[in-house]
Write a structure and sequence with these properties.
3 helices; globular
Amino acid sequence: MSENKKTVERYMEAFAMSDHAEVLSCLTDDVEWEVPGAFHLKGKASFDLEIENPEFEGSPAITITRIVEDGDVVVAEGAVHQHRKDGGVLNLRFCDVFVLREGKIEKLTSYLMEIVHPDDSHSHAH
């Protein structure tokens, strides 16, 4: 596995455990993180504040379904499942586009889609 893919996998595992130090060790100092329509932040300190969202409890369950690499770009696709403090559950599908520099994440663009009604078509007879 390439250095860049290893970094992304390490980042995902650390994020899923809310391991701030490990997450930050995967990033460049001038890291940028953008979630189109939600936020765009710069720098490790700002990034650190987003690792654990106060509306949620525990760590997110992250499942990666695909990881593709092209040069210094790694794209990871998957799902996130997390419990809200109000008792609800968040189900997201994501496509994360990572741009790496010297083995560290320089820019992350997260395309997120909340799944309000999980697809249950598999349970119906056709």
